[in-house]
# Entry
Amino acid sequence: MHENIEDLTHLKKLDSSTVLQCLQSRYKQKQFYTWAGPTLVALNPLKDVPDLYSKRMMHLFAHESFTYKTPHIFALGQRTLRHLQWGLGKTHQAIVVNGESGAGKTCNALYLLSFLAAMETNNNEVPNSSNIEVLLCQSNPLLEALGNAQTLKNENSSRFGKLIRLVYLGEGASTQLVSAHIETYLLESTRVARQAAGERNFHIFYQMLAGLSDSLKTELELKDVPIWEIASERDCNAVDEAQFHATVAALEKLSLEDTANQLWKLLAALLHLGNIKFTVTQETWTTNQRHHLESAARLLGLNSNELFQVFTVRNFQAGTKSPAVVRPCSSQNECAARRDTLIKLLYRMMFDTVLESVNEKLQHTNNDQGQGHLFTPKYLCILDLYGFESFQYGNSLEQLCINYANERLQYYFTINYLKEQQVHLANEGLNSIDLDENVLDKHNLISFLDGPVSVFGVLNEECYLNRGCDDSQVCIRIQSSLNERTKGVRSMPPSPRMPRVSRTKAPPVEFAISHYAGLVSYSTVAMLDKNRDQVPGEMMSLLSKSKSPFIKLLLGKDALIFNATHTMNGRRHTVLAKFKNSLDNLMRILNACDVHYVRCIRPSVSEIHYTSSPSQRWDQDYVDAQLKACGVIDTIKVSSFGYPIRMSHEEFATRYQYLSSSRRDRNLDAKEICRRISENYPQMASEVRVGNSQMYATEKGIEMAERWKLQVRNQAASIVQRWWREHLRRQKAAVTIQNWWRTIVVVRAANKVKRWWKRKRSAAQLLLKVGQISNSVRVVQRTVRRWLARVRARRAIRQLRAQISCPPPVAQIDENWCDSNATLKVVSLNWAENNNCAKPTQSPSLISLQLSRLNYFYSVGVISIRRPPSVRARFITRKTCLPFSFIPPKTQLPTGLTDAYL
Ligand SMILES: Nc1ncnc2c1ncn2[C@@H]1O[C@H](COP(=O)(O)OP(=O)(O)OP(=O)(O)O)[C@@H](O)[C@H]1O
# Structure
């Protein structure tokens, strides 16, 4: 039976297999949440679970204090809100939700948000559609439409990271949500121009194609186009139309109806742009999709020729003062790349602008009036960021950024958690742990990534200096700079490895980094281009000439960003530099907060949900990899720094009571017993510590305790065995004595019997002699009697022979003698010895019967009386000296008569 407990750090053995078993057994029991110290591990049920997030549950978690400890996303929300309201810990609170794609980050963040919104609605006496919690929930479908897409792993995958910052004012129960702000990270804008096989573009394209009215489609020239290259209409599904209405409703509720029309126009322009292809005729670039070019230019408020020129002609400028040199693009791919750059740029600007409008709505509400100045605002931040990513091939700049962010978040978590542990151990009256020792490795790895001489350093430098390094040179530079960095390091941390060189001696384009979640191999192919993310200047100046107010609006904001993203020397910031800045900013926010973590885990790659068989829905290796990637194993390792094994005083005392010196100790209280035990074994003192609230032990300490316990037991066992053997020997001896004594008793008894028997035998012999005499007498008597009988018989025969000459006895026969109903059917004939005739001896109506057969016999006697069965037979018998009587055979009896008696 696996341990099934609500907090993984309470497991007796803190290793990944025990953690896996525990989580699996909880998943089987439909318990999808588990604590891992301060972290909440959320297993994805992959389907709606009845009542898991219902209003009843919200109410329960909002009002019942015992639910605090129950692992659930609402419990975490409740705990965080309480900390914020009552000023427990830091002023600001943050919840970081992470996990791999499809693990349930967005769902959990949404449930959390809806719980916080419900708590707020409870506080608001009058529900108001302009309340922040209502607006926040409305903004979700809009952001999902613009920023989510169908991927191979998840039908509704968020392709951007987001930080939702809820601003509260007030103290205690009167704390109120007054505004909110949503910040996004790393929108995957490459998806607008190109998607991997089996994946889709952002939902908004399909929603628009499925839901727009015919008139609007005609206006945007979206009708009768066989195929859209960037978002095929064939990929639209039934859900898209319904979601289109949800998006439109969200835009209306956020009062962004005007933006909606501009949005459709811009998206239609992107569809048209995506369909433009390039051909070269007489050394000039042309296109066969002129109508798409015209439509795109019209919708963007641009001149179509100028637009086409931006795609096909490049401007070079050596310095700010020297004139630009104009050259046509050298290949179709180059033209397509410039077209895609414009598509990406416009989409990104549109996404940022819509987000900004949403943020404006979330900031200007009625709630903050009146009390805003009395209290300092408190933030509750929800961070839903990409999880750690590692593909078998082609990990590039995006994965480097994502994994760097996760590495920093994990480092942040480790540092904070270790500090907490330090405080905890100090409160327990124990030595604190050496923080530097434990976090040095992690810190080193981050500096390998973003330090002055690091992966980021090399990539940025190559972008700024523009020395024309190819992909393999970049790879070699990364490696050599990292080798230099590792020289002075005290202990060799998990570090970037040598670039992999294939056997064909092809130039290396891969380097690998051992992250906390595992080794990731990155490819430097096109990494520099991605890092530059250059928008040609001529493209920006063309856009600035647009007649569309919406493009002007987008550009106005992006122009600000454009300026802000340039360094002091006028160079444009690279993607890595911008990302690092935004991450630094995020870390500053998190530093000001008490951070709570939700680690989402997907139990299997396929869409098999919790109602299927356990073997189908639980993929051990996949879950294990995720536990590592999202830092659960790391969390547990951190929990185990110092004294990884913790148990209550009672448990320790029960387990190791044999180690206390005397039996009397066992009557003491558990903590005192623990203290006595640790005093009895001073070698164990530094490994097993008696804390104020529980026992703390190292693996070594428990090993020692177990060894001594075994020793004590062995000693006790040998004493018991000795005693038992002694007991057996005594028992055997007793049995021998008993056997001997019983033999004596039996022999004595036997002798007694023998003597008695002897006496009896002589008496018997005497009696036998007497018996023999009496037997002889009886033989004589019998012989005499036989002889007498024979004599008499002979005499009788002689008399009978003499009578045979006499006439046979005559019996009178009644005429009804053979009637079965007659009262008396047969008579008896009395054969008198001295009479030759048979006569009936009794009336009534006796029948005299002629017994002719008697002639055949040589003796006389009595013939039995026969009566019908219904009549009770009465017999009259007389003694006779004759040995035989005559019985007529049944066949010769009159009908209805039976033998009654002989
Ligand atoms: N708590 C839950 N209850 C029911 N289903 C869930 C839950 N969490 C996730 N799911 C299911 O898993 C799917 C993926 O979840 P979600 O979109 O939240 O993953 P994600 O981690 O945000 O993925 P991505 O990083 O790709 O956006 C959801 O569409 C939903 O079907």
Summary: The longest strand covers residues 176-185. The first helix runs from residue 16 to 28. DSSP finds 27 helices and 20 strands in the chain.
